[in-house]
Design brief:
Blueprint (H helix, E strand, L loop, with lengths): L3 E4 L6 H16 L4 E5 L5 H9 L6 E2 L13 E2 L3 E2 L4 H11 L3 E5 L5 E6 H8 L6 E5 H8 L1 E5 L4 E7 L5 H7 L7 E4 L3 H9 L4 E4 L7 H10 L2 E5 L3 H7 L18 E2 L4 H11 L3 E5 L5 E6 L10 E5 L15 E7 L13 E4 L5 H11 L6 H15 L9 H14 L3 H13 L6 H6 L2 E6 L2 E10 L3 H4 L2 H14 L3 E8 L4 E6 L4 H8 L8 E4 L4 H14 L1
Parallel strand pairs: 1-2, 1-17, 2-3, 5-6, 10-11, 11-12, 12-13, 14-15, 17-18, 18-19, 21-22
Antiparallel strand pairs: 4-16, 6-7, 8-10, 9-13, 15-16, 20-21, 22-23, 23-24
Helix pairs in contact: 1-11, 1-12, 2-12, 2-14, 7-8, 11-12, 12-13, 12-14, 18-19
Length: about 550
Amino acid sequence: MKPIYVFGHKNPDTDSVCSAIALAYLKEAQGIHCVPKVIGPINRGTKWALDYFNVPAPSYINDVKVQIKDVKYSKKAYVNENESINDAINFMREKDLTAVPLVNDSNILTGYITLKELAKYLIGDKRDLIDTNIKHLIKTLNAKIITNYDHEFKGQIQTCPVSSETFIKENTLKKDDIVVVGDRYKILEYAIDSHVELIILSGNKVLPKELLSKAIKNKVNIITSSYTSFELCNKLSLANYIKTINKTPHPKTIDINSYYQDFLNISKKLNYNNYPVVNKNNECLGVLKLIDSSTYDKKKVILVDHNNYEQSVEGLDEAEILEVFDHHNIGNIGTTTPIYFTCRPVGCTATIIFDRFEKDKVECPREIAGLLLSAVISDTLLFTSPTTTEVDIELAKKMAKIAKVDINEYGIEFLKASSSVKGLSVSELINQDFKSYMINNKQYGICQITTMDFDEIKDTIPDIVSKLNEMSENLYEGVLIFITDIIKQGSYVLYNDDSKALVENAFELNDLYEGLFIPELISRKKQMLPAIMKLLDN
């Protein structure tokens, strides 16, 4: 059973990571297989909380695009290169294949045979050469062993269309010849005396005792079949190894982990009907038939702490969104079918998740409660943010009790750890909690950095502004950073050069400069983003 991935937004904050972990735990407790993931690097505060409660960090997921492993393909649709041509044809008929990959004993791809190549072989002029083993000969010719000394056979077929005297006179038999004959005993004796590699008796003929004794003495392989000589000549080459007619030793393959959309682009250029599916070791897993390629399973996901495409994982439009848990404004994510969408005006997604534990009557363990509490403390800045609600405070007390911590003591310790920016590069600072928003078909970026010591950042303001200008040239219409001072209860604002008027008008500022402190500006969700959106909408 494939798991459901639970994850938050890009540049994940503590709420995004901890809510994903907690919700995945809740779903697993309810018998729904879920795995928490992150789609960006985990920040210092989140790492601190994870270490404090001894919870491993979720693994990273790069995208949720449809891959070949999600597409319906014919699994184990391949033939060992040492199988007979006859068995390969029967396998293709059984699997309804117009081509089949060839593999060695380790399932490594060694070639590729199409029906067209098989047809050319069956009407070709090289069917008098044999390269096979005793097992394939017995099965293909419905034969029985009279004498057998060798396992492998490689040589030329010799038939007897003329009289015995003429055949003996005109044919010099070699040791690697395969002679097809009925009850023409002179030819049989000549073949045995010539020490040929194999004699095939047609019509279930019985070898006379004196000839059998001579064959045993000369160690000549003999088998007998119910088929006539004519039928044997037609069927004999079908016992050959399928690898003997391999015309495509290096076929175009499709990696099991490659993207479905890339496959569609390739298939339009190549116009093949079948593609061997391989893994990174070139081990063949099966065949993807073009006719079946439109049938695939989308990856199933649950989103927490966001509902915007710009903030989510790559390929989200190719996935199946099952649920959303969020506390932000309604974004631009849409679905083709109805889903459970939980969005509440509280200070933190973790509040919603913990409430679900209570409503579903699932016991919340200490470490999960501790992570959810960390998320609430982070998002509400220990209940000082205007986004804080009575629900956040009430449920946080319950979380603290389960986690066995004092809210204020733990909260201050957590905020100290999470607000430290010492040693971070400019890019790391910006990406700590950066979100993208599509407003009036233009992309804007808003970063919020929480700190207890603005002086740690003050000297890097010119470098930060330079980076914001670079970002606005390449992707964003405007990029803003709000450095929220927990102690002073306000935020310092930084912006790219072209966004000065935007900041002035949105927050009604005079004499704006880089690093200006705006008192009581704390919440991106309730204060910063709404002010910017209101201005741009007008």
